[in-house]
Design goal:
The chain is α+β, with helices and mostly antiparallel strands and 270 residues long. It has two domains: 141 residues, 2-Layer Sandwich (Fructose-1,6-Bisphosphatase, Chain A, domain 1), CATH 3.30.540.10; 113 residues, D-Maltodextrin-Binding Protein, domain 2 (3-Layer(aba) Sandwich). Helix 5 packs parallel to helix 6.
């Protein structure tokens, strides 16, 4: 299957949604859909815009989106026989966005048989588009990118997403002690910058499928390893059965990945 046309569709949809989000950032209303999750009208409108653009070209495909009714995810089963699912986060970094800190991204992925085959992350504030198809290289604004390959040291930047309920996992303290730990407020941007070699690794404990699907593919095509915290594959994913469960994720070049797995699971703990 030629994924390049589908990649172009995703890129076009991501750019349109991102530019719309920028245009309404100062005025879009927001609310809490759960005690710790905020949503804006722009989230909903951008998701609808993305789905409509994709449906125009891919009427039989399925969809999983972050913004459904009553605080639930959005789901539309594939109408055709092929297990093709678009996974959408219309604004990754909504907490930033709702507070007028425009550090956010649009994340769109296409999964086939549960594996990401197209991935796009668009940062509208800087007009940077990160993308990849399963049969091509990772790119930033059309130029090939590569993740870092060297071992981690005290100057390495490791992105850590989300907040953590007590007790704090001991390995998080190990990360904080050994590396320069970053949190942009957008997991998708973390993965984009790992793919581009700006960050050495990204660690996430509570992210959802729509946060990670595009970034996982882009990082894979940039040379990174993508696993859970037990060093097991995260994909393929059961799109039909997915209901928003958290997906622990570790992304890094192979050498750094092994270092982090050893910190998460010390040999005497295995």
């Amino acid at each position: 299957m030629n994924y390049l046309p589908l990649l172009h569709i995703a890129e076009e949809a991501a750019r349109a949604a991102g530019q719309h989000a920028l245009q309404v950032a100062a005025s879009t209303p927001s609310e809490y859909k759960s005690p710790d999750q905020i949503v804006t009208q722009a989230d909903r409108d951008c998701q609808a815009l993305i789905i409509q653009k994709i449906i125009t070209h891919c009427p039989g495909h399925g969809f999983i989106g972050e913004e459904g009714e009553h605080g639930q995810l959005f789901r539309q089963e594939p109408a055709g026989t092929e297990p093709l699912w678009w996974v959408i986060d219309p604004i990754d970094g909504t907490r930033n966005y709702a507070n007028k800190a425009l550090n956010f991204a649009v994340s769109i992925a296409l999964l086939r048989d549960g594996l990401p085959v197209v991935g796009v992350i668009y940062d509208p504030s800087t007009n940077q588009l990160f993308s990849a198809a399963i049969d091509g290289p990772a790119r930033r604004n059309g130029q090939p990118i590569q993740c870092r390959s060297e071992a981690l040291d005290s100057n390495s930047q490791v992105a850590i997403s989300g907040n953590y309920n007590p007790p704090l996992p001991s390995y998080v303290a190990r990360f904080l002690e050994r590396f320069v730990c970053m949190n942009l407020g957008s997991a998708a941007l973390h993965y984009a910058w790992v793919a581009a070699g700006a960050y050495s690794a990204a660690f996430s404990l509570k992210v959802k499928l729509w946060d990670i699907a595009a970034g996982a593919l882009i990082c894979q095509r940039a040379g990174a390893r993508i696993t859970d915290l037990q060093d097991q594959p995260v994909f393929p994913c059961d799109c039909r059965g997915y209901r928003g469960q958290p997906i622990p994720l570790l992304i890094a070049g192979s050498t750094a990945h092994r270092q982090l797995i050893n910190l998460i699971q010390p040999m005497n703990d295995r």
